[in-house]
Specification:
Keywords: Membrane, Transmembrane, Transmembrane helix. Pfam families: NusG_II. The chain crosses the membrane at residues 12-32. A 4-stranded antiparallel beta sheet has the order 2-1-7-6, with no helix packed on it. A 3-stranded antiparallel beta sheet has the order 3-4-5. Strand 1 (34-43) and strand 2 form a beta hairpin. It has 2 domains: 1-31; 34-117, mini-chromosome maintenance (MCM) complex, domain 2. Helix content is 21%, strand content 39%. It contains 2 helices and 7 strands, in the order H-E-E-E-E-E-H-E-E. By secondary structure, it is α+β, with helices and mostly antiparallel strands. The chain has helices at 9-31, 89-92; strands at residues 34-43, 46-52, 57-62, 68-74, 77-83, 102-105, 110-118.
């Protein structure tokens, strides 16, 4: 069957290996999804706000120096819509929606991170021998 056909035995094994690898990658990515997420806003390392990822919100983040960032939470996605920082990189970082994702505005010392309750929290994060 494989000797004179279009697909050789090596081709079949390569396709099977790619499908198995893709399945493993998908399983690992979906295992880390969160049940309930929180948007944590920190400025200069100090937590200022903790907002639910499930509630649509528009929040103007302003500090004493006049630095402003407009944070938007919609449909379990977070982004900075406007900012008065000189480079505007925080606006161009786009939407984040998974636990561990973050948006950083260095000129304003602002970090927006998504945190959540993982589905499997019973085991250790890492083991070292």
């Amino acid at each position: 069957m494989f000797r004179h056909g279009i697909i050789t035995k090596a081709d079949f094994l390569l396709i099977a290996g790619v499908l198995i690898a893709a399945s493993v990658i998908i399983a690992v990515r979906t295992a880390g999804r969160t049940e309930e997420g929180w948007v944590v806003v920190s400025r200069d390392g100090i937590e200022e706000e903790r907002l639910s990822l499930k509630e649509d919100t528009r929040l103007l983040l302003r500090d004493e120096e006049g630095n402003e960032n407009l944070l938007v939470i919609e449909e379990e996605s977070v982004w900075i819509e406007e900012a008065n920082c000189p480079d505007g990189l925080c606006v161009r970082q786009g939407h984040i929606s998974h636990s561990g994702d973050s948006i950083i505005c260095l000129p304003h010392k602002l970090v927006v991170t998504i945190e959540g309750t993982e589905k499997n929290t019973s085991g250790p994060d890492a083991m070292v021998n």
